[in-house]
UniProtKB/TrEMBL annotation:
Enzyme kind, highest EC tier: oxidoreductase
Family: Belongs to the DadA oxidoreductase family.
Entry annotated with the keyword S-adenosyl-L-methionine: no
Coiled coil feature spans: none
Record domain FAD dependent oxidoreductase: where: 4-397
GO molecular function terms attached to this record: oxidoreductase activity
Metal-binding in keyword set: no
EC number: 1.4.99.-
Pfam family, one: DAO
Descriptive protein name: D-amino acid dehydrogenase 1
Database matches in SUPFAM superfamilies: FAD-linked reductases, C-terminal domain, FAD/NAD(P)-binding domain
PANTHER family given in the database record: D-AMINO ACID DEHYDROGENASE, SARCOSINE DEHYDROGENASE-RELATED
UniProt keyword list: Oxidoreductase
Amino acid sequence: MKSVVLGGGIAGVTAAYYLAREGREVTVIDRQPGVALETSFANAGLVAPGHSYTWASPRAPKILLKSLFVDGQALRLKLNADPHMWAWCFQFLRNCTAERSRQNTTRKVRLCRYAQSQLQQLTEAERLQYDRISCGLLYLYRDEASFARGTQNMSILVANGLSLETLDAAQAIAREPALAHARDSLAGAIYCPTDESGDAHLFTRALKAACERLGVRFDFDAAISAIEASGDRVIGVRTPAGLVRGDEFVLALGSWSPVLARQLGYRLPVYPVKGYSATFPVGPDHRPPELGGVDENNLVAWARFGKRLRFTATAEFTGYDTRHTPADFKSMLQVAGELFPNGADYGRPSYWAGLRPMTPEGTPLIGRTRHRNLYLNTGHGHMGWTMSCGTAKLLVDIMAGRQPELDMTGMTLK
């Protein structure tokens, strides 16, 4: 059985690994010169079931509307003429009710917990190294009102089996001494002891090596221009080298999945949401945090990877534009300086912007399509690193004819 995986990001490479473990002959195709060079390259690095809340919440429409007139919002809407964006936004707004928010968050946290267990098993089995820290994550709140709201919201995660602790400012600093300078600006924190952090790019590179040991072939610098089908089966995909044929195909192209799928008549509810990151070197005189986490009031995340400290922020609805300027990172760097003034060499930033492939619900699309040999593994959004091993395992169970280990409601093509 020849399996062709379209996409060499974390979703594609994890799918390739599990397929190869099934004994498939696997080929991965990607337009980049290596794995994980787009969405997975410089993301937040948090493996965070403790942050599984859906973005489509009752508060989201007001924030998006405000972003049209006020700079510095964590969610930003930039108007353009793309009809696909407007269709996606309409579906997103439909999910911004309290009932749907709870339902979607429940599905996300269950998937994230399952996926983390698969990640841990894979990491141990293959002895992967990716600057992993497994000491929990902190979710900080700057004022009493937001802390109370966060404490109330965490009940949905706890009800689904996640362990969370509420900490006052002093307790948060005891957990992470590098926050001592920010003591007066903290109301409290929620601590998830089972959350982790690690470099998704390093992980994917290490997993690629494991895939190659299993016989997986990687075709890089191979942009896919077309999917060719006959009846209800895909025949192959067109690249500069010609038609790549296979017995089964996995669409794992992230934000570009709906673009290619339109050729076959699919309207995948996936749209890019732009995020920004800045990574700084850490020297012997710096005092970086050990634990990763999120400043919930500013939606700025941070994580340490060995001698690097990374901050990520912003969800910008602006289409497929990945351009950025130093001004885009101003608010993020201000938060970095407030929380960890001596955390890293802030004068030597490495800036990056990438696209998160989001569905309106926040849950990915996994499994079968109308074409009998075409499968989906896409739409992971801001939780792709957390979800990747779980969605790949669920996908391969479906492809192998097994019952998935998790309820797939809300995660399949309708």
